[in-house]
Amino acid sequence: MSKSERPSDTSFRKTWDRAEYAQKAAERESHIKEESKARAEAKAQGKKYYPRASTPPDAKETVSRVARLDVSANVGKTMLVPAGASTGKRGRGAGFYCQDCDLTFKDNLQFVDHLNSKQHLSNTGQSGEVKRATLEEVQERLDWLVRKKREEAEAVEKVVDLGVRLEKREEELEREREEKRRKRREKRRKTEGGMGVKQEVVEGNGIIC
Q1: What is the DSSP letter of 47?
Q2: Is 64 helix (H, G, I), strand (E, B) or coil?
Q3: pLDDT range class, residue 8, cuts 50, 70, 90
Q4: I want to staple 108 with a disulfide (CB 3.0 to 4.6 A). Which of 71, 89, 140, 182 is the partner?
Q5: Quick one: 110 exposed, middle or buried, by C-beta within 10 A (0-12, 13-18, 19+)?
Q6: Are 102 and 87 in contact (CB under 8 A)?
């Protein structure tokens, strides 16, 4: 065994990778500089700075809900809840229950606010960032809405049968007849006994009928 390979009295101590920790120190310093810059920008705009929470690398972007939120589904229903099932908001109790966060809310406003909160987005694997749509995506969305509206109108026209169309036409004719009767009544009120009266004005003698 050479002299350099002989164990020393400090060989039991843990060794450190200087390059790895130098890189971590550089990343920490860069993060501090970015946070300081963000604080200065928020202060210049008169706003309060809130540090951004770290997000997992596999978090997906926040998107809008596909289906409409039905908060009136349990109206008029009876719900059996065992005693002590929930403590405060924690656990499933009577009200609006969030399965992802294991929380219960007593009214729909609190429930909707919770669904849009950072806590719920984080528990559902969303980053809280919304993707900015491009011009092509906006145009494609508008074209889709136009096509959807046209298809819905065509579907309504196909559903309407002959009987319904005849009823609508009869209602339109009835409105037209009522409008004609109203105009005749107004014309009669403007005349005397249903006939117009011709009036002539002669100087000194007044009105001669």
Answers
A1: -
A2: coil
A3: low
A4: 71
A5: middle
A6: no
Euclidean distance between CA atoms 64 and 93, whole angstroms: 27
CA distance 34 to 26: 12
Six-digit token string for 140: 């494609």
φ, ψ dihedrals at 165, nearest 5°: -65, -40
Q: What is the pLDDT of residues 50-105, one digit of tens each?
A: 666 555 666 677 777 777 777 777 777 777 776 666 666 777 777 788 888 888 88
Listing DSSP states for 167-200 in one string gives HHHHHHHHHHHHHHHHHHHHHHHTSBTTB----E
Rounded CA-CA distance 166/169 in Å is 5
Given pLDDT bands bounded at 50, 70 and 90, which one contains residue 146? very high
pTM across the whole model: 0.40
Q: What is the CB neighbour count within 10 angstroms for residue 104? A: 21
Q: Which residue has the tokens 């809008």?
A: 64
User: Considering only CA atoms, which of 83, 113, 77, 78 is closest in space to residue 98?
Assistant: 113
